[in-house]
Structures are given as C-alpha cells and as structure tokens.
Amino acid sequence: MKSSRFFLLAFFSVLIINCSKKVESKVSYNKGEMTILTDESFKSVTEALAEGYMISYPDTKIKVVTKKEDLGFLDLLNNKARIVVMSKVLSSEEIKAYEDKVDMKMEPAKFAADAVVFFVPKNSEKESITMEEITSGLQSDDKNFVFDGTNSSNLNFVAQKLNKLPKDLKFSIIPGSVNVIEELSKYPNKIGVIGLNTISRPYDKEAEKLRGMIKILPVISAGKTYSPDFGGLREMKYPFTRVLYFLTNEGSFNIANGFIRYSCTHLGQKIVQKEGLQPYNIYPREVQIR
C-alpha cells in the first residue's frame, strides 16, 4: 500500500514538472508568435528587422501591423500589444501613464535615426525650404503642407519640433505616405511631408520609383542648409531628425525583449543601415594612418 502511494506521488510529481516545462517552453525569446505595432512611416525598417529575427530564430513568427503612433501607444498601455515602435518624445503625463499601467520604468530602446522630410514634385522649381516657411506655412489658411494623416507620427513630430499641438497646425491630408507622393503633382504649390523610411531603401524598386517622382527639400535653419542624409542624421543636425525606439510591456526576457536586443545588436543595426537609415548604436569610424 505504501509502495503504491509512493509510485502515485512520484507519478504526479513528474507530471507537474513536465507540465511546468511545457508552460515555460511557450515563453521564450526564440519561440512563439508576436505582433509589433508601428506607424506606417516606420513599417519598412520594422518589417526588415522582423524578417531578420525570424531568419535567426525560425520558430518565431512576427507580424507587423500598422497603426497610428498614438493609438499604438494606447494599445500597449491597455495590454492589447506587447511592443510598439515610437518616435515622439513622450510627455511627463504619458510616461507616468506607462509606468503606472505597465508597472515598469520606461526605458526606450533606441535603434535608428529617421527623419521627417519635405518634398515637392520632381519638376518643381523649388530647391529648398526655410524653417520660417515651415512655421508660417503651418499657420496659414492656405494649408499648403500635405501630411499622410491625423495622429500620424509625421504630424506629431513636426508639431512637437515647433512647440505646437497638432490641432493648432493648419494642413491638408492625403491618407497614406505613398498616396501623398503619387498625388502631390495634382496640387500646385503644395509641399508633401512624409517619413524618410518610406523612400529610404536604396535597392528597393518601389522606393526607387517613389524617389524618382519627388525632390526632397533641404531645410535652411539659421542661414545653414541641412539635408536628411547619413551625415545630417548621424550628427542630428538636420532639424527634423528623429530617433526611433521600441517600447514593450514585457517584464521578462521573452520574444519582445529578444527582438529588441536583436535590433540593437550589430546584426540588427546593419539591417537598419541597409534600410537607408542611420543606425543608432553603430557609427562608421574613419581611421587615419600616418
């Protein structure tokens, strides 16, 4: 009788251990499924990093879903998403909301320097734009600046740079960054505003086609001209340079944190560079031999 009880107890002990292992196996950085929320402006680089991660870890499946930046942040707070891509500098109220709801200290994982760019159709005579033109134009009833949508990362960022709220700016809307590029020629004197990553992929045929349709305007500030090229982004001199970062509500080292770590390693940063953006964590170094 005692021996049967012993074997019964041993059987349940082994069963509990095995069940625990099965539960733990579902929670891992190299297995499982995850959805990343990203604004349309950052979709390309996010997808490239997700593809790289899935190649490195074949048992993972990452889905990239586009969502306006503000709405993605709210989904993260309400535990409807595990990870989001952001660019805006959060207010003290937003930081407090994150730390209260997620119950973690906010630590943005910065991975790339991107930019908001101003452009005109290829045949336009306009060659540059001043900060004064941008500031006054966004206060004009002419609404000559065309954004890709309300609550978009591009609108949020420009408003923040001008110390304004988006609702205080006057602008036009053509939904979708690609649509802004393709349709801007129909509206003389308008200036398009999109994220650089929409057209930054150097070897992508679609991005190359879109680049061929427009002329990116250097921004003149305090008498100096700045372009959203690697130099302007690396040194953060281009006035509308922005840093992309990840936020997660995942407290342990599972797939979201694994993906974040991958994106910030040398391999992930090389993917960022191939996307035509400036890696945040690696910089080209020049060595002079004398």
UniProtKB/TrEMBL annotation:
<protein>
    <submittedName>
        <fullName>Substrate-binding domain-containing protein</fullName>
    </submittedName>
</protein>
<dbReference type="InterPro" id="IPR050811">
    <property type="entry name" value="Phosphate_ABC_transporter"/>
</dbReference>
<keyword id="KW-0732">Signal</keyword>
<dbReference type="Pfam" id="PF12849">
    <property type="entry name" value="PBP_like_2"/>
</dbReference>
<feature type="domain" description="PBP">
    <location>
        <begin position="31"/>
        <end position="263"/>
    </location>
</feature>
<dbReference type="InterPro" id="IPR024370">
    <property type="entry name" value="PBP_domain"/>
</dbReference>
